[in-house]
Amino acid sequence: MGLILGIESSCDEMAAAIVRDGLEILASRVRGQADVHAPYGGVVPELASRDHTRSVSAVVEEALAEAGVAAEQLDAVAVTAGPGLVGSLLVGLSFGKALAYQLGRPVVGVHHLEGHLASAELAAPNLEPPYVGLVISGGHTALYQIGDEGSPVLLGQTRDDAVGEAFDKVARLLGLPYPGGPAVSKAAERGDATAFDLPRPLAGRPGLDFSYSGLKTAVALEVERRGSLSDAEVSDLAASFEAAAVAPLVERSRRAIADRGVGALTVVGGVAANRHLRREMAEAARRDGFRVVFPPPGLCTDNAAMIAAAGSRLLARGGSHGLDLNAFSRVPVGAAPWARGAPG
Ligand code: KG4
Ligand code: ZN
């Protein structure tokens, strides 16, 4: 497998990384665009892709320089092909294909969520399938079973909003800055999680699905009812929301672990950086006796090391793609059109 360049540009981060043999990160660079989107309170797709075109070559060059690797030494290029914002995806994808063509090396398209799932294996190289993976990000909230081979199998997912999206929307309702997840989490640290009685989505119900639109609406109603909020009330509401958002993640992960009879859980994606979640999940793992793996925060949020790691697994199974590899905005894990023809 050797040296893989990973490129990730599915949303508002341009990232490049060099990973050796699928597990050793030699360099990982991420350039965010918070300043570009902050005035709008959310990602503006057109601005995201335009900014990516300005930064892609510099970010890739920085990663190569940090790793002390010349482009000619690369063995392959792995790049996110979906899901995500198509305009953003196309920037990284086109650059990756052009570089691979120039170098005469294979290019492999990676599913963004398979990238997130691979981040746990970067963080814990001794992790052995089968295990359950909880993917919690701005666009996804889902549980997967990861086996020895083949694609991850979906066990359950959100019926409406993603948990990260709920964090971002609640931040906006509370007048907290973008990006919302870290801001809500910071405000929550000073708050009382029992101050507001918010609904716990699908609490106590069977199954492995999630739902976050009702919780988000409940926060919106509280904000509307009170008119204006003091700093203390903002902290209390943030803490109450965070507790209600995290509880079903813990409850359903425990159930998935028990149902599948596996001994380990990985928690990946931007929301896995949340400290309250880490505490609650670690406590559940201790009580139930399973292993829980959290990648370090820099590997939880979007990065290219996870794309290179997932790409090297695909390459090891003999998968590579042609230069007609396209970007896809919505595509389920395992059913990726670009995976056709590639083993697994
Ligand atoms: O994985 P990611 O970087 O991008 C996507 O693929 O969506 O996840 C971004 C999401 C955002 O919704 C952000 O608000 C959330 O992760 N997030 C957090 C925290 N850090 C990032 N949510 C809660 N607590 C955090 N500390
Ligand atoms: Zn992501």
Kindly describe this structure.
- With 344 residues, this protein is an alpha/beta fold.
- The protein folds into 2 domains: 3-116 and 299-343, ATPase, nucleotide binding domain (Nucleotidyltransferase, domain 5); 129-297, Nucleotidyltransferase, domain 5, CATH 3.30.420.40.
- 44% of the residues lie in helices and 17% in strands.
- It has helices spanning 34-37, 45-67, 86-103, 112-123, 163-173, 180-188, 213-226, 231-260, 275-288, 297-300, 305-316, and strands spanning 3-8, 14-20, 24-31, 76-82, 107-111, 131-136, 141-146, 153-157, 264-268, 291-293.
- Strands 3-2-1-4-5 form a 5-stranded mixed sheet, with helices on both faces. Strands 8-7-6-9-10 form a 5-stranded mixed sheet, sandwiched between helices.
- α4 (112-123) packs across α11 and α8 (231-260) runs parallel beside α9.
- The radius of gyration is 20 Å and the shape is globular.
- The model has no long low-confidence stretch (mean pLDDT 95).
- The structure holds 5'-O-[(R)-(carboxyoxy)(hydroxy)phosphoryl]adenosine and zinc ion.
Task: Give the arrangement of secondary structure elements.
Layout: E1 3-8, E2 14-20, E3 24-31, H1 34-37, H2 45-67, E4 76-82, H3 86-103, E5 107-111, H4 112-123, E6 131-136, E7 141-146, E8 153-157, H5 163-173, H6 180-188, H7 213-226, H8 231-260, E9 264-268, H9 275-288, E10 291-293, H10 297-300, H11 305-316
Parallel strand pairs: 1-4, 4-5, 6-9, 9-10
Antiparallel strand pairs: 1-2, 2-3, 6-7, 7-8
Helix pairs in contact: 2-3, 4-11, 5-6, 5-7, 5-8, 6-8, 8-9
The structure holds 5'-O-[(R)-(carboxyoxy)(hydroxy)phosphoryl]adenosine (KG4) and zinc ion.
5'-O-[(R)-(carboxyoxy)(hydroxy)phosphoryl]adenosine (KG4) is lined by residues 11, 137-139, 164-165, 167-168, 179-182, 185, 269-271, 273-274, 301-302.
